[in-house]
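Collaborator request, handled under Task 6.
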Amino acid sequence: MDLIKSIIMGIVQGVAEFLPVSSSGHLAIMKHVLHMETDTGLLFDVLLHLGTLIAIFIAFWKDIQELIIEGFKIIGDCFINLSTVIINLQSKKKVAYRKIISTPYRRFVMLIIVSTIPTGIIGVIFADAIEIVSTTLLVPGLCLILTGILLTIADRVKTGTKTEVNAGYKEAGLIGVAQGIATLPGLSRSGTTITACLLAGFDRSFAVKYSFIMSIPAVLGAVILEVKDFSMDMVSQSDIFNYLVGTIVAAVVGYISIKTMLVIVRGKKFKYFAYYCFAIGIIAVIGHFVI
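Structure tokens returned to the collaborator:
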């Protein structure tokens, strides 16, 4: 792949991963339009996702840092409670157990875990099917139209008040299912999960934060599944520099897109992206039968 195509793909990934227009759908369409089906490798797809992960870490570093710290504290308290069980079995004097979910960020950690479980199950079960439907313009086109419908709904949903303090695990599980379904090419992950968050009564700003941070374990899981099948024989040395440039572009553009997304959600301006998704989706569907 040449440098120009790497930069284009990096821009598409950075914009479409976070703005509600579907990165997978646009990448599938771009590969058809630029005739890149044979010269975009597994390594480049992995690096593009890593680029957008970097953008998430930079944009929400304080929250992610706190989540990591509280996550380890949860593990520590679980071991302490396990030892307390043994002590209480051997002693007449009962020792009190530590409360595991004792802070909002610990609850945030558990919500992310609950959301990740159905996402992972759906991703593993339907991985092959998703790869097959990604080779045609029809499915991305139809899913982009569905994304437009979801964004239209999102603009009309009443603003909720739920955050990490009072969001429920049932809602987290359903949002995880939505994220799993959004692995279909053309169905925007951010648009689908943010809409699901809003329908669950989440505060709009928290919905964006939750959607993006929730994607971290899902994307890392997908990267690990892809990397296990990777070999350096699949890519030439001359492509590595271009791939890295595309990764950096994806990270920079992704960060800008995240900040833009926060403004869009607060201002209820999803409709403009809905119009765009409708247009591109219809063009892709027509292109499937024409090209």
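The cover message to the collaborator said: "The chain has a mean pLDDT of 87. The chain has one domain: 3-290. Please let us know whether this matches your experimental observations."
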